[in-house]
Write a structure and sequence with these properties.
The protein has about 270 residues and is an alpha/beta fold. The protein folds into two domains: about 5-220, P-loop containing nucleotide triphosphate hydrolases (Rossmann fold, 3-Layer(aba) Sandwich), CATH 3.40.50.300; about 220-270, no CATH class. The chain is built from eleven helices and twelve strands. The protein has helices at about 5, 50-55, 80-85, 100-110, 115-125, 140-155, 170-185, 200-205, 225, 245-250, 260-270, and strands at about 10-20, 25-35, 40, 65-70, 70-75, 85-90, 160-165, 190-195, 210-215, 215-220, 235, 240. The strands form three sheets. It has a six-stranded mixed beta sheet, sandwiched between helices. A four-stranded antiparallel beta sheet has the order 2-1-4-5, covered by helices on one side. The chain has a two-stranded antiparallel sheet with strand order 11-12. A hairpin with a 2-residue loop joins strand 9 (about 210-215) and strand 10 (about 215-220). About 40% of the residues are buried.
Amino acid sequence: MTVDQVHRPAIRVQGLKKSYKSLEVLRGVDFDVARGSIFALLGSNGAGKTTIVKILSTLLKADAGTAGVNGFDVATQAANVRDSISLTGQFAAVDEILSGRENLVLVARLRHLENPGGIADDLLRRFSLSDAAARKVSTYSGGMRRRLDIAMSLIGNPEVIFLDEPTTGLDPQARIEVWQAIKTLAEHGTTVLLTTQYLHEAEQLADRIAILHEGRIIVNGTLTELKQLLPPAKVEYVEKQPTLEDVFFAIVGHNGSAADTAPARASEERR
């Protein structure tokens, strides 16, 4: 990595637009993601989250705007981008016939890395899967499969990882297991862009949160900054800070339409 890359954001998106025929999915999206941070892209189904991930991972071309990952332009330096990233979709892409360790070793060998067994053992330890290393993945719980999937995506030490709704379909305990795995990524210096429709997930994990609504980023900040968008409610002289859910619905509206009067309505509902 060059000195210039170190000082740039890990991800930079400016004026990104994408349409499918007459349907405008992205209408000018802008955001930066700092290196080694967890950035949550929060929005309802159909908001355009997966489209952004596909563009950033070079699977889809934007109609307008620019996007860079790890200092490389996704349109003109796609090969460099792909060498810098890993992508984990909404469903675990693991081989159920193989054991957890065999899945990891296989990917390491496909990437022509030295000591694939050592790489596998290290990732199994990091994601608390050592005790299940020899078991077939078909016997794993949903949370274990997801953790294995994320571990597989780290083979080759990508600078940036995209997690597209990684806890979809998981029960609460499995979701907590995956949250811990994601926190582990950031602790090891990996930049994480996380898409989710779960408000509590973004609240638990993200250093910064951007709310995507109707093809645009309508708010972007830390959890503390977002909470300051709504006044605290007072109940029997006890101050209650707004939750991320309060912020989300106040901005986009309960019926999915953004409204200027939403903060006032949300304040009245909490009384």
